[in-house]
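Contributing new records

If you add data, match the layout below exactly. Sequence lines come first and carry their own label; structure lines follow with theirs. Keep one chain per record. Anything else will be rejected by the validation script.
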Amino acid sequence: MPVLVASDLDRTLIYSSAALHLTMPDARAPRLLCVEVHESRPLSYMTETAARLLAELGDTAVFVPVTTRTRKQYQRINLPGPAPAYAICANGGQLLVDGVTDPDWHARVTARLAEECAPLAEVRAHLQATADPAWLRKHRVAEDLFAYLVVERELMPESWVKELAAWAEDRGWTVSLQGRKLYAVPKPLTKSAAVREVARRTGADLTLAAGDSLLDADLLLAADRGWRPGHGELADAGWSAPGITALPDRGVLAGERILREFGRASRARATGGGPA
């Protein structure tokens, strides 16, 4: 039975320059590999050691990137190693198989959202009516599934976020603040549902996962073992659960540590040592 490794990308395996958290002296900083370019500029990085670990992971596991990014945003990323056979985008709303969208999965997701949640148009209208132009920089819709704002976080009142979260909760939506982006996402739109579908298709009986945000909590809970870094929404909230390891590592070195843990656990299974 294969091992399935399902991991969030941003601030879990890959990092913008602002999120690297390089606190050591410059001469001791790790060598970095750029894995994303946007508008001709380098955007996301991992350490060269992490890149090697990710490339090696394919020997013992099926690696599945799991991201809230849209398909277009995900396709900017050039990860080391073979192209993943499966990738999950739009927080579980899009399942890519060999780089191609699975239309049946998307249809299943959209049907469920229509049945269980307030429509996207209502949420968009509320965001546009209540967000203050003093701190709002962009308002975006992702794959016609959810909405997100780009904000000046230091200017945005915490009270507004709390009020929005309560309003969204009553309509079957959830709110997540990650860096300068605030996401409003339907509750049934989950990474875990898409990962379970990939596990079914691959026959995997052991799932390992990692993530840093509240939108990753369901993914971690659905896995047999999970890891979260020492930064991000989950760390800030002190979130934990059985089978989840809270790592002390922060920034790009946390991504390297997570890949070491993935490799160790998947090799243990491959050599008959169980999921340890």
